[in-house]
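User: I'm putting together a teaching handout on how sequence relates to shape, and I'd like one worked example. Could you take Hydroxyacid dehydrogenase from Citrobacter amalonaticus, show the sequence you're using, and then write out its predicted structure as tokens right after it?

Assistant: Happy to. First the sequence, then the structure tokens directly below it.
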Amino acid sequence: MAMNVKGYAALAVKEPLVPHSFVRRDPREDDVVIDILFSGVCHSDIHNAFNDWGGATYPMVPGHEIIGRVAYVGKSVSKFSVGDRVGVGCMVDSCQHCSACEQGLEQYCEEGSTLTYNDIDRHDGLPTYGGYSDRIVVTEKFVVKVPETMDLRGAAPLLCAGITTWSPLRHWKVGEGSKVAVVGLGGLGHMAIKLAKALGAEVTLFTRSPGKEADARRLGVGHVVLSTDDAQMKAAANQFDLIIDTVPYVHDLNPYIPTLALSGTLVLVGYLGSLDPFLNSTPLILGRKSVAGSVIGGIAETQEMMDFCGKHGITADVEVINIQEINTAWKRMLKSDVKYRFVIDIASLK
Ligand code: NAP
Ligand code: ZN
């Protein structure tokens, strides 16, 4: 029952996405076949299609914030039934036996997790294709349940923007009374604010965009610091237990380190690559401060985050688009002009 699937793909680097038909594998015994309803648009989709990180292969069907309904389950599937509302994020498989996988941290799989797109399936050696399409086939181990009453459009971004900010909030034990700052108010940034606030933290936003202040306050931010204003940066000294930096491109981290409290951590989730300018170690050493990194989150942790969001009524603020508008949406995202996540209504593919 190999399936013909419709989607949108990049056929070459920096080329606009175009309609693209392709074939998904026959479902294996542990597979769930999902009719995709909504697919979130992450800045990583742009980085991948533009080959910012190297290793791009084409045709590339992006999309790793997938919400849909189960259409078929393989013989050994036990967690899901036809009709269930489900989500798939950035990974669709991992080795399942290394020390990271054994801890439920499949995103750090020592053999490399299998990414939802722009990767190779570890069993049949075929390319993986993402959520800008109408169907996907995924082992049940990498599928999560969507809470009963959750709005499905606003749920899609939880699968990447949500878990990527949830995981560091949990790892660094953010809770009642913690002081958290978020750098950049985009898809990840707005989820970091909502989740940190719901965990009981006092939240500050660092932004380059003065126009985002009112929205930031509506999302739960107590203080807004314009990162381009030296005086405001200096006034924010010695405050934060955790800073989550979501900026997608290289930028100077040095001005943020003095804003960390004693033993505080700045965790990078946005930019991948060498720092420029260099990081000065002196304020790190003199304040026992850390600069760290973090990638998405494990599957159990993703389910935990979905359930937390269900309980606290949290979803993303989304602009729903038709898939024909995807190239315009990417251009707007590159200008930081999105409030605060584009989500593709996959019905528009039909
Ligand atoms: P986004 O919606 O485009 O938001 C990024 C925000 O960063 C912008 O809204 C802007 O906020 C700020 N910004 C943009 N360009 C900047 C620049 N040159 N200098 C300073 N600030 C800038 O992107 P996103 O989808 O949230 O993704 C953010 C980054 O996280 C991307 O690089 C993405 O690939 C990465 N990511 C990582 C993981 C992971 O697992 N680690 C997962 C998903 C995504 P202001 O206007 O407020 O300044
Ligand atoms: Zn993403």
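A couple of points you could highlight for students: The longest helix spans residues 299-312. The chain has two domains: 3-160+297-348, 162-293.
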